[in-house]
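[job 0412] stage=fold_complex status=start
inputs:
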Amino acid sequence: MPAYTAPTKDIQFVLDEVLIISGSDVPGYSDLQPDFTGAILDEAGKIARDILAPLNAPGDTEGCRIENGVVHTPRGFKEAFATMKDGGWNGLDLPEEFGGQGLPYLIGIAVGEIFVSANMAFNMYQGLTHGAIGAILAHGTEAQKATYVPRMASLDWTGTMNLTEPHCGTDLGILRTRAEPQKDGSYKITGQKIFISAGEHDLADNIIHLVLAKAPGGGEGTRGISLFIVPKFLVGEDGSLGQRNAVAAGKIEEKMGIHGNATCVMNYDGATGFLIGDLHKGMRAMFTMMNEARLGVGLQGYAVAEAAYQNAVAYAKDRLQGRAATGAKNPDGPADPLIVHPDIRRNLMDQKSFVEGARAFTLWGASLIDRSHRAGDAEAEGLISLLTPVIKGFLTDKGFEMAVNAQQIYGGHGYIEEQGMSQFTRDARITMIYEGANGVQALDLVGRKLAADGGKHVLAFFGLVKRFIKENEGSEALKGDFLDPLKAASKDLQAAGMFFMQNGMKNPDAALAGSYDFMHLFGHVCLGLMWARSAKAAQEALAGGSDDKDFYKAKLATGRYYMARQLPMTAIHLARIQTGADPVMALPAESF
Amino acid sequence: MPAYTAPTKDIQFVLDEVLIISGSDVPGYSDLQPDFTGAILDEAGKIARDILAPLNAPGDTEGCRIENGVVHTPRGFKEAFATMKDGGWNGLDLPEEFGGQGLPYLIGIAVGEIFVSANMAFNMYQGLTHGAIGAILAHGTEAQKATYVPRMASLDWTGTMNLTEPHCGTDLGILRTRAEPQKDGSYKITGQKIFISAGEHDLADNIIHLVLAKAPGGGEGTRGISLFIVPKFLVGEDGSLGQRNAVAAGKIEEKMGIHGNATCVMNYDGATGFLIGDLHKGMRAMFTMMNEARLGVGLQGYAVAEAAYQNAVAYAKDRLQGRAATGAKNPDGPADPLIVHPDIRRNLMDQKSFVEGARAFTLWGASLIDRSHRAGDAEAEGLISLLTPVIKGFLTDKGFEMAVNAQQIYGGHGYIEEQGMSQFTRDARITMIYEGANGVQALDLVGRKLAADGGKHVLAFFGLVKRFIKENEGSEALKGDFLDPLKAASKDLQAAGMFFMQNGMKNPDAALAGSYDFMHLFGHVCLGLMWARSAKAAQEALAGGSDDKDFYKAKLATGRYYMARQLPMTAIHLARIQTGADPVMALPAESF
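[job 0412] stage=fold_complex status=done
writing structure:
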């Protein structure tokens, strides 16, 4: 069964040496001294290793089951959930007035990586609750916040998001769930929602559903959509649980993975709902949560890959098979360990250089959200809004690919469920789909974010890359290995943007046909930037005489690998983009 | 539930217009007139559509189960197996003297694609039998052939291959199963074999295991290995079934996919075995079967992708979601079908251009095997030996990737098992692993095949590409769209080979670090060649006034897509290869 050890040192490297958060002017960041964050990460790491990770494979095998509308989570989940509750982990980055600890979002994300790596399916119960709290805090009335948030922050109650219906997911404009206004100001919600993660379970006393539905008078399409709070049990004014609401799980889906999380069909049969935010402005309310939710899914992509990688490394060091081409490395054994073989290294280096780059990228993204929320920085807000589809789409595509790579290290043993490597692949697969399938992320990036506000966010990004290169051009250690490749990759990204500008106006398909490649091109440039920044930090630590030379040297070697062997992918993405719409759209639909 | 229709027209296009088999001088090929092969493919297509495909998803859900050593296959498999038996499908390309129909191997492969697409797990029972027959035909005594082959050809009995043990798969030199010689010339086989596909089941009266084991006196490593026939029931001189042999399935593995095939742990407790081939030359006996077995797995890679593709297309045409960026295409409906969206097209074109190119590549490979076996053509033998790891490694990596792509078209519906798209991904995953994990294919390609016989096979390949380009350079239709990109890609492949020659001698790791990229680079060049050849055929058909213009135009458009958007990948593979061993090997093992 796979094991997991939180990579606290790598996380702290990003926080303290790459992002240098304790020196940041974002309110709250000056408290984030290494000792303090280290203690939090260590504690999270212990829970992850000792409680969550051991439940991951059993939770996959056992799965959830439904009996008369009651969903049972796998054995051990209840006790583990109690641990999360007792530790106040869900409230880490929630406001103190609602029972949280008021730490920056960045810390929630750093801890989140650890919990997700250990047990993604389990962590979703908490993660979705956190997302629902975000919506209520952003759009709820004071009374709604007071009623729901403290109990959700404490995990007495959990939350869900209800968007998808059988006939629509991406295109919410055609959803059918109806909200009928009642005399008392509430609504009767009627319709069916599907793919509702944590829609029903036995971990909490109440479940607070956030539901998109159409109320009369809103017109066609997404304009007619409003957002409603629909609690499983209605809540009295004193906070007590009242009547069971007319909402129930009709079934739970058999899925490829995340079996420990109950994915429910939710039936709303005139359930009592309460409008949250403005009437007919439900889409806007959902969208304000999107950045965080999508960053959270990008995190899942690399967090699962991290767990898979750790086990692939252990196996590669342990499994004896064949001899090194350069002479036996384990001459007294029957064979050498797998890790001597260059192609095994290639595979492991792909994983390692991705995961570490992705972590830096995601934590940087989280710090931009903090800067936007806590310091009201509009540039940070614009930048993270641009980068969000990249974080979500690129990191989940690559995270899945790396989970597959890790599974491959095990050979035949990777294919049987007993070893647990198949689960990482199966679990990671969903991250490419939910919270907006990755094709939709690419569409969002190219069709909306790129040109938003006159394109100033992407220009800000280019400025940032340029500045970093300029500031560090004097460094011999960075120049050839890091800055030159970064500059070339960034030029490819600019050329792609230019192509869209010149061709997308005449024919939107010319841009959209390249949207997926653009998302990946952008992702590579971001990871290239993060590796250049990480290399600078490592270089400085070595120059400063750190006594942890191996750690920093490994950072440099891993970064060099990424720059030399992954970053050049930008050229092919650009080449594809520049072929325009023709190759993609040439075939009439009936010829497929 | 997914449906499947055999792409007989596409298969025949390759046979009749690209490979032009009926005009070939390979013995037996002149009989392969379009009407004749068409009738066979149609009949196979009917069985695939009506009998095998409908059992695919149920077989996945139900899986195999073991009770007291008896393995039960999923409901319906017995009846379907009887259909395969009655139709004589397994004997299609086996010698007539053993009850086969004596057709070329190529036809077996063309039909094999259809059966694998419809139900990969089911088809393995037959496919492994076919492989075992190949070993017996190549290395068995006349008596062994007479005893086993006719009953296996007819599928009264099935066969297996037993290589892997718990501690070794790739590195068979360290295997532990022992063969003790007996006075009567037989051997007592003792040991445990794992991951034995179709190791035990209820579809046949007897199971003929081919088992690698070490007999005394063979020395260390692979030199000591011999191959043995170990029947489940011993066979009397009159062909009757005798005593149950001391071989039994200890358990069946829980796997990620191919649940309809029983993957068994086989325990040999002094089982009676009969030497096949020369003592201590078992590895050689296995290797002579490798080309065909590995080509068969490469076929699985694209055959599963074909089935997934068909369903992705159907969904993309049916599912209404969003509006085309260039204006509504289905204005009377609530939304446009997915297929209007450029990124959906991009995804589908990736799949289509891969599958069709892969089919041509595989059928060409099969024709090289026929040319080698039937015409004793040493050049063909050398070429297919070089191309085999490319067919296996590249087509299965890409086949899996395309199954994932097809699943992605379904959005959330692709993740739930009910829709059947997850199964294609899970089934395809094994093809990258078994019959030599793809990293081992890359090692075989670069470490062995490339330089074999003084490198003359790869030179023959380059000659072939060059000749094709030269012969067709006058064609305007081919020049810019097909020949120029093919030439560039082939140059990349040559440069990569050159890099290995110049650096691999000094440091084998410099070549091996690039082995995986080389395999993919080579694969792209092969598919580029196949598309150029296909384009030529399509062009000629159009020039000849074919009244099936849409079909040939689609071939050209699909080929152009591959050349414009996939083939340029050769540049990045070359760039990676040229970084040599350093980036890959820089990190000490303890830094992973």
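[job 0412] summary: Residues 444-585 of chain A form one domain.
[job 0412] exit 0
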